[in-house]
Amino acid sequence: MVLNAVEGAESEIWLALGVLLGGFFLIPRHLKSAQRQKMHSSASKKKAYTVYSKAEVSLHNNRAECWIIIKDKVYDVTSYVEEHPGGDAILTHAGDDSTEGFYGPQHATRVFDMIDDFYIGDLEQ
């Protein structure tokens, strides 16, 4: 009888520990996601986007100022040039349309989520 009580208490302790650890891993991820979404939405509300001509984008064609066009949207990827896993390949179309290269097979799917962080405006039609 005493043994069953000890086993029962031990089971309850493991159950409580499992719930606490589960909450520890699940809740912070949820909060981080919500915070990230809130920051992104508030940043997008504050920032006014501009319409750029192709001539203006073409002036930003080097490592120090690297703008690219993807599907008629303009991105300032200057801060990413040094981190680019493909090295200087990102500079191939600096100041120009990079749509074809961006959607090439070399890019992992996460690049499609990352690019929004570099958006600065639309290409003039």
Please tell me about this protein's structure.
It is a single chain. By secondary structure, the chain is an alpha+beta fold. It has helices at residues 2-46, 54-58, 99-102, 110-114; strands at 50-52, 61-62, 65-70, 73-76, 119-123. It has a 5-stranded mixed sheet with strand order 1-5-4-3-2. β3 (65-70) and β4 form a beta hairpin. The longest helix is centred in the N-terminal third of the chain and has 45 residues, at 2-46. It comes from Hevea brasiliensis. Keywords: Heme, Iron, Membrane, Metal-binding, Transmembrane, Transmembrane helix.
What would the keywords be for this entry?
alpha+beta, 5-stranded mixed sheet, 16% strand
In short:
The protein contains four helices and five strands. The protein has 125 residues and is α+β, with helices and mostly antiparallel strands. A five-stranded mixed sheet has the order 1-5-4-3-2.
How would the blueprint of this fold be written?
Layout: H1 2-46, E1 50-52, H2 54-58, E2 61-62, E3 65-70, E4 73-76, H3 99-102, H4 110-114, E5 119-123
Parallel strand pairs: 1-5
Antiparallel strand pairs: 2-3, 3-4, 4-5
